[in-house]
Amino acid sequence: MTIQKSITTADLNQIRMTSLDIAEITGKRHAHVIRDIRQEIESIGEIDQPIFGLSEYTDSTGRKLPCYEFGRAGAMQISLRYDAKTRYMVVKKIDDFESGNLKPTTPADLLKEELKIFALFEVPKHLAQIESVKQVKKISGVDLSYALLVSPAQDNIKKESVMLEPTELGKIHGLSGMMMNQKLMRMGLQFNDGTGWVPTKRGAEISSKHAWAKGKKSGYNLKWNKSKIK
């Protein structure tokens, strides 16, 4: 596979988007977007003016990682791989870049935006950090979980505030996630309404809903107060 040369200073004047932006729009891992762009480069073959520039960005740990930068032509070329909604979002974003309303997205930018969203929903800081890190990894492929290990918010979590999913609880009790759910049901803490597990009145006092999204599907799981499940 032929990889295009690194972008030059002249090329940078025309740059409006990066592969990180495409990852954010599509919800794909950044590594997968890079793969898609490389396949486009290979399919296009030799052209007078390359539309994708191989570059790099620095993540919050100081690591230099590869990415691609491009203008309208590159954005339109890669958007053709995806659905109509994605193409619309790419066109809208490229217009915003060209008007000067937006700047290229970095993992740090993504993290800040995710934390803001969780703050709007008054999510406790330690939980907001955990979920934000998960979203950044999903969108950009960059894993920031190392930072959680030294975060004061994570160190200050009270034992009685630790919330775990049934799979995690099951490991403590020597049970599978499925068996743990059955145990929680026998304890009168939850029941299955046909669409999923729902907490009982007593279970609601020691559980919380944990939202998830995968592709076009979304829903929630229950997390349980570790100190209350014996």
Physical arrangement of strands within the biggest beta sheet: 1-3-2
Count structural domains: 3
Number of E-type strands: 8
Number of helices in the DSSP assignment: 11
Instruction: Please state the CA-atom Rg, rounded to the nearest Å.
Output: 22 Å
Most strands sheet = 3 strands, antiparallel
Structure description:
- The protein is α+β, with helices and mostly antiparallel strands and 230 residues long.
- The protein folds into 3 domains: 9-104, no CATH class; 106-157, no CATH class; 159-230, no CATH class.
- It has helices at 9-12, 19-26, 30-44, 72-79, 84-98, 107-120, 125-140, 152-155, 166-173, 177-186, 201-204, and strands spanning 17-18, 52-58, 64-70, 163-164, 190-192, 197-199, 207-214, 217-225.
- The strands form 3 sheets. Strands 1-3-2 form a 3-stranded antiparallel sheet. It has a 3-stranded antiparallel sheet with strand order 4-8-7.
- It starts with 8 loop residues before the first helix and ends in a 5-residue tail after the last strand.
- The model is unreliable at 1-13 (pLDDT under 50).
